[in-house]
Amino acid sequence: MKSHLYASEALLPTGWAKDVRLTIDEGRILEVVPNVPAGQASRAAGPVLPAMGNLHSHAFQRAMAGLAERAADGSDSFWTWREAMYRLVGLLQPDEIEAVSAKLYLELLKGGFSAVAEFHYLHHQPDGRPYADPAELSRRVMAAAGQTGIGLTLLPVFYAHGDFGGQPAAPGQARFVHDVEAYLRLLDTLEDDLRAMKAGLGMAFHSLRAATPEEIGAILAARPGPTPTHIHVAEQPREVEACLAWSGRRPVRFLMDVAPVDANWCLVHATHMDEAEMKALAASGAVVGLCPMTEANLGDGLFPATAYRQLQGAFGIGTDSHVATDVASELQLLELGQRLRELKRNRLADGPGHSVGRSLYEAAGVGAGQALARGFGLAPGMPADFLVLDGDDPFIQAASGDQILDRWIFALGQRVVRDVMVAGRWRIRDRHHAEEEVIDRAFARVLRRLADA
């Protein structure tokens, strides 16, 4: 059944437009007409934007946010944080994974994200044995997405080894590990169910540490075609050093030598590249998945975003370990990190006179739409994924055009995200979700149980 939404101001692919009527049919945009009267259309409560996709999530990690901030001996790093994460992995039960995922997806919706790529590597029981249904934990993530209504691209992760060269996995990694045949069966098992819930299916390799070139090749050969394919790469200097020692090549260069990296791929983090790697990656058409809040929290380093943008490289944003869960925080830190590095302002604008907020928002939206195979934009054929900012906020009332984005991202943050529609259905209305109280109670029970464990 068709419905209509009227926006006094909306961001279209051609730029900001006034008095826009959006026609929605079966979860997609059917028609976009500016400069028309509202008629019988429902009026949006503020400026309307295409909602953002989140291209990198480990939903279960939301349960440990804020619990790894006690200093040890001064050598705290990603690698020491990882040990705390492994402890959490050993404790979580299937119903708890579903509850944590639902809470996270609710928060992402309220933060302005309409869809998420779930990089899902938590597959088995704590001792590594498969569940009676080997897809049990994937289905828990799917159930959480269904409860909240967030758009989902599920990326089951292939994870087989503990380090470069096929080293055995560590005990803390037991819940992650597959062989190639079991992993391919998992993908086959999930395909029809994801299609039925109108969700996407891609695949992921955890990292070059966790998957050998031969395993990557075998999986790609078994599932040819344009499929979202994601991988962590070059997140930490130690990873770069280990890859050089093992292969004689840096991680991004090695990956591009052994895999057909193209526009179907998303390289998550890619923080530590040299100039030749940056040029090759930008030219490939792949998307770089940036998670600025997590990368800062883990001490990963700063992605060279200014240089990468000058190469016309594609990027999007994710929330990864979910120390933050909103669009504005990630985009703001992405820009501010470059300012701190370069001692200059307004680094990631598309050019002189261009708004930083709009440049970031549109580029990240297009990149996430590509990485999720979902698309982005208020245009016919695109998903009816809308974000409405609070038109009653005085900052938003006094702004127009690109000022709206600049004020939201750099001054206001999540508090002005008012309504979020996903595939034609309002999931957040006046900052509230219909299942919010139920989801919050279930999440609180998990946190209390973990605190006592």
Describe the structure using short key phrases.
deaminase activity; 453 residues; 20% strand; alpha/beta; 9-stranded parallel sheet; 15 helices
Q: Secondary-structure map with pairings?
A:
Layout (H helix, E strand, L loop, with lengths): L2 E10 L2 E11 L2 E6 L8 E2 L4 E3 L1 E6 L20 H14 L2 H17 L2 E8 L15 H13 L2 E8 L21 H17 L3 E2 L1 E3 L7 H10 L6 E5 L3 H11 L3 H8 L6 E5 L5 H10 L2 E4 L1 H6 L7 H6 L3 E4 L9 H16 L13 H16 L14 E4 L4 H4 L4 H11 L4 E6 L2 E4 L7 H17 L1
Parallel strand pairs: 1-4, 6-7, 7-8, 8-9, 8-10, 10-11, 11-12, 12-13, 13-14
Antiparallel strand pairs: 1-2, 2-3, 5-15, 15-16, 16-17
Helix pairs in contact: 2-3, 2-15, 11-14, 12-14
Description of the molecule:
- Pfam families: Amidohydro_1, HutF_N.
- One of its GO terms (cellular component) is cytosol.
- With 453 residues, this protein is of the alpha/beta class.
- The chain has a single domain, classed as Metal-dependent hydrolases (TIM Barrel), CATH 3.20.20.140.
- The chain contains 15 helices and 17 strands.
- Strands 6, 7, 8, 9, 10, 11, 12, 13 and 14 form a nine-stranded parallel sheet that branches. It has a four-stranded mixed sheet with strand order 3-2-1-4, with no helix packed on it.
- A hairpin with a 2-residue loop joins strand 16 and strand 17.
- Helix 2 packs across helix 15.
- The longest helix has 17 residues.
- The protein is globular and about 65 Å long.
- CATH architecture descriptor name: Alpha-Beta Barrel
Provide the CATH top-level class.
Answer: Alpha Beta
The CATH topology comes to: TIM Barrel
Q: Name the CATH homologous superfamily.
A: Metal-dependent hydrolases
Structural class: alpha/beta
